[in-house]
Amino acid sequence: MPKKASTQPSFKAKKMKFMDRSLSKGLGQAVAKRTILRTDSKGKLEKWSDVAERVAKGNTMLLDNLSKTQLKKLGKTHQKEEYEILRKHIANASLLMSGRHLQHGDKTQPERNMEVFTNCSTASSSFLLFYLLLNGSGVGRAYDDDMMVVNWDNMPIVRCVLDENHPDFIWGEDESIRDAKHKYGKVYWYEVPDTREGWAQAVEKIETMAHEKKYKDDLLIFDFSKVRPKGSKIKGMQNRPASGPRPLMQAIQKVATVKNAGMSAWKQAMYVDHYLSECVLVGGARRAARIATKTWTDPEVLDFIDIKRGGFLWSANNSVAVDEKFWKQSNRHAKKVLDAVLKASYYDKTGEPGFVNQHKLVQNDKGFNGYTDGKYANSKKYKPAPKTQKMLASIAKRANAKYYTQIPNPCGEITLNMLGGYCVIADVVPYHAPNADAAEESFRAATRALIRVNTMDSLYTREVKRTNRIGVGMTGIHEYAWNAFGFGFRDLINEEKSKEFWLTLSRFKRAVADEAASYSKKLGVTVPHTNTTIKPAGTTSKLFALSEGAHLPAMREYMRWVQFSIDDPLVKKYQKMGYPTKELKSYKGTVVIGFPTQPEICRLGMNGKLVTASEATPEEQYQWLMLLEKYWIRGVDEDGKPLEPDTGNQVSYTLKYDPDRVDFKEFKKMLKIYQPQIRTASVMPRIDTTAYEYQPEEQMNANDFMKVIREINDEEGVLEDIDLEMLKCESGACPI
Questions:
Q1: DSSP state at residue 642
Q2: What span, in angstroms and rounded, lies between the C-alpha atoms of 509 and 633?
Q3: What is the pLDDT of residue 558?
Q4: Is residue 680 classed exposed, middle or buried when 0-12, 13-18 and 19+ CB atoms within 10 A define those classes?
Q5: Which of 140, 258, 373, 605 has the maximal Cβ count within 10 Å?
Q6: Exposure string (b/e) for 137-146, b if CB count within 10 Å is 16 or more?
Q7: How far, rounded to the nearest angstrom, does the alpha carbon of residue 604 sit from its chain's CA centroid?
Q8: By C-alpha distance, which of 621, 601, 494, 463 is closest to 551?
Q9: Model confidence pLDDT, tens digit, residues 365-415
Q10: Could you tell me where the beta strands, DSSP code E, fall in 517-565?
Q11: Would you call 223 helix, strand, or coil by DSSP?
């Protein structure tokens, strides 16, 4: 680790060592219980060390799928060594695989499809988007005019039926199989299988038939009788309850309303995808994370800019894809689009639509043949029909003619082929590493682990083999900067003053790039086209009370208010232990319990050096982003020159401004100066929530915080709870 400069203020660093780290008491335990920890047959809850063991085992067991030639290159002891190093770093929380890995990772991983372990993806058709959402992946889609090959006015007439003996059948609402067979004559009948693949195939049928343009007056019946009832256990989701057939039945009925509604093809697709996303959201296992992009040159881009106004199509975050020509503002259309975006973002108080600087996204076309045979989406678990492949081939031909073929995932940290692609992600926590050498070891271990995940079978195997894209990120960055170097946020944006910190980050970047190249060579796979990123890390960071990804801490000390039913027996337990309690007037029968929460960064003795998100100016935050892109995303060599080639993804960052202090004129000036200089960023207004009776988080001063702490006597060690609202992307779902 570089020696600290003599100009640095004196501070006491927190000494780190390798250990089986415990989850952060309170918030960390609550988040883990909700999202990651499993219970055994006796109801015993996992410890974090148990998670580390099963995740490391599952990941390293992927080596069993390699050929004998590949294994020989790696050596006999490689699997054991990889397990031990991965388990060590996960248990120490110096490596946090993303929540997908922490939830699903175990010895069954080699048999599962990669979609379950991917954070993000793209799709170029509605059925693929739906399938990926069902697998828990965040999905991006380009709604450019030239990417639309389906006119949903040509879809068949659709009906959904259910056996009257099915537990979810509702008399007076559902149409029974018996009635349908009695009523309808010649029809296309499809029994929907009780699988993710079966649900996606139902949508595939509608979309392909619409594309063929010859079934417009035909009747297509979907029979949902084989779909398991609501509340049944889903084995592949750790026995979480199934949604039953009704959400998809209702979604398909909504999709049918798009027919003959008088909309352009891109707008039809947005409504279809929204209805399908609602269905996933109702499922309860995961919210549907999406981004919708449209290029600024499309004639109807102004309609796209305004399409969400009033609360419509809320399931996706919308962004306009722009380039250098746009930012030059040299023609009337460009000026009109910029003005419309800025006005919608500022006056609607949503931050939407955002901007995607498509020209800055790393686009590596090596080995890309356009996929014009339509076979770019095909796996052991899901094989589109031959007629569907013709539709996909048509989309691929259009994509192949485009200058820019990359769009980001929903939170903006990864660049992906708009036809279809994935990224698997992990976070390294250098703050938890004993020293820089140990941190580098973790970065290299994360790189190898993610490359192994890319060997799994997936829908986009062809694109995965071509790009081998990974995203090694960081979280707890501000804690690390202070503990290792004595730098606060304002020191960090002074590039010369904090040079040793930035050069250390580039050391880690070079380590990731080096490991990606050397390990890929050993496995005989493509060197990853992109390798570093910073994701939001909202859930994983909470496990250890860290600042999230690149973000500054939102607050110092705060009260976390969690809703409970008034008759919940836990309410009396918490009251007895001295936790603050309030009965809500606007939510009848609801009580909120207050859990005092303090981030790790507040315990490091930073005093006046600590800066929260609301205290940093937008200009300071833009400077922070530019430095992260320079030293971590792009990286520099030991002489300070940019690394070649560029193998960086992006930084997911939500930059918030105070609309009471920044008027529209200042907002416009700020965006025009800084937004063209970075790859991505979400710029959103800070909303004052103090007028609402219920706030999930309420800021406190240190004195009040300590007073509440002293009044609590939690001798029973009752685990705290958390609202699912807190687990959503804190930016408001990160519109780019």
A1: B
A2: 8
A3: 85
A4: buried
A5: 140
A6: bbbbbbbbbe
A7: 29
A8: 621
A9: 988 888 999 999 999 999 999 999 999 999 999 999 999 999 999 889 999
A10: 532-534, 558-565
A11: strand
State what percent of residues in the chain have pLDDT above 70.
93
Longest dimension (CA), the chain: 87
Going by C-alpha positions, the residue among 436, 423, 437 that lies closest to residue 648 is: 423
Tokens of 203: 């949508």
Most confident of the following: 184-198, 306-320, 441-455, 533-547: 441-455
| Whole-angstrom distance, CA of residue 401 vs CA of residue 269 | 21
pLDDT at residue 730 greater than cutoff 60: no
Which pLDDT score is estimated for 733? 36
The 10 Å CB-count burial string (b at 16+, else e) for 147-184 is: bbbbbbbbbbebbbbbbeebebbeeeebbbbeebeeee
Sequence-separated (6 or more) residues with CB below 8 Å from residue 195:
none
Instruction: Give the tokens for residue 33.
Output: 């219980």
Query: CA–CA separation, 711 vs 709, rounded Å?
Result: 5
Token pair for residue 153?
């006015």
By DSSP bridging, strand 120-123 and strand 420-428 are: antiparallel
**Comparing C-alpha atoms, which of 428, 439, 433 is closest to residue 471?**
428
Confidence of residue 722 (pLDDT cuts 50, 70, 90): low
Helix 265-283 vs helix 246-255: angle between axes, to the nearest 10 degrees? Answer: 170
Closest CA to 635 of 475, 450, 503, 441: 503
* CA 204-207-213 angle, 5° bins: 140
pLDDT surpassing 60 at residue 511: yes
**Average pLDDT, whole number, for the chain?**
90
Query: pLDDT, tens digit, for every residue of 342-359?
Result: 999 999 988 999 999 999
Q: Three-class SS of residue 262?
A: coil
Q: How many Å apart are CA 268 and CA 130, to the nearest integer? A: 15
Residue 244: band (very low, low, confident or very high) from pLDDT cuts 50, 70, 90: confident
- Tokens for 350, please give them: 């949503």
What average pLDDT does the segment 185-201 reach? Answer: 93
Q: What is the DSSP string of 290-330?
A: EEEEEETTSTTHHHHHHTTTTT-STTSEEEEEE-HHHHHT-
CA angle 35, 682, 425 (to 5 degrees): 40
- 685-690: long-range contacts at Cβ-Cβ below 8 A with a sequence spacing of 24 or more? 685/346, 685/349, 685/351, 685/656, 685/657, 685/658, 685/659, 686/614, 686/656, 686/657, 686/658, 686/659, 687/349
Q: Which of 515-519, 643-647, 655-659 has the lowest mean pLDDT?
A: 655-659
Residues 6 or more apart in contact with residue 119 via CB below 8 angstroms: 98, 100, 137, 138, 409, 414, 423, 424, 425, 471, 535
Pair of tokens at residue 552: 């500054």
Q: Per the structure block, which two tokens stand in for 244? A: 């039953």
CA-based nearest residue to 207, from 421, 78, 384 = 384
Q: Contact 562/577 with Cβ under 8 angstroms?
A: no
DSSP annotation string for 563-616 = EEETT-HHHHHHHHTT--EEE-SSSTTEEEEEEEE--GGGGS--GGG---TTTS
Residue 436 burial by CB count (10 A; 0-12/13-18/19+): exposed, middle or buried? middle
Tell me the three-class secondary structure of 646-658, residue by residue: CCEEEECCEEEEC
Alpha helices in 229-300, H assignment, sequence order? 246-255, 265-283
Would you call the peptide bond into 645 cis, given omega within 30 degrees of 0 as the criterion? yes
Is residue 482 within 8 A of residue 604, CB to CB? The reply is yes
